[in-house]
Structure prediction request, 251 residues.
Amino acid sequence: MMKDKPAPENPALRADGRRPDELREVRFRNGIAPHAAGSTLIEWGNTRVICGVTIDETVPRWMKEQGVAGGWITAEYSMLPYSTLQRKPRDIAKGKIDGRSQEIQRLIGRSMRAVLDLEKLGPRTVWVDCDVLQADGGTRTAAITGAYVALAQAVRKLLAAGALSVDPLLHAVAAVSVGVVAGRPLLDLCYQEDVGASVDLNLVMNGAGQFIELQGTGEEATFSESELAAMLALGRTGIQRLLELQQRASS
Prediction:
């Protein structure tokens, strides 16, 4: 009796069964931190990041000294010790902030400031805290995407309380990773793909389809203009989907 041959694997699919242009599942759980002005737990595949926003009714000293009008928004980012397979020591135990964490929190801050009218915000400081509970690739993009959802909640509270008369949010903002793995451009790299990528690119874009930041590099490799164009096209597709998910989570 002849046995049925196994169905051939689809070479277009990735190790986790996704298409090249497919995001991992993204979910938002709002209100995860009740004492924050706005908060969400973004679950992006197996990456999980808590994003919380708190507000100080004052501005940094440098703004006062320089007579800069309006407010300020800044961010802090950290990976909790149990977020990775091997324990990651806390920055406080090392006596200084990790260089990667510093780079990412500056990126988050720049991304939020790009979509917020600081003069309309008024003389206050908005703090965005992003803490990684579990890391499986794309923690910085998850932090930015989740931070906006938390920020939108905080702004709504200020408007409802009469602390703001005009909405200072100009656009939504989201971020996604793209890369070239085994010669193929792929959207939203998980950790397994990230470590094997020859090219790694992070895109930050606003709701108007404009770029806020591009971070791209070849990992002991180069990439062509056509590969860059393919990655940007994938990134735009992913950003559009993320903006739709943010809209649902923020409504």
Observations:
- Residues 225-250 form the longest helix (26 residues).
- The two ends are 59 Å apart (CA to CA).
- The helical segments are 61-66, 91-94, 99-113, 118-121, 139-160, 191-195, 225-250.
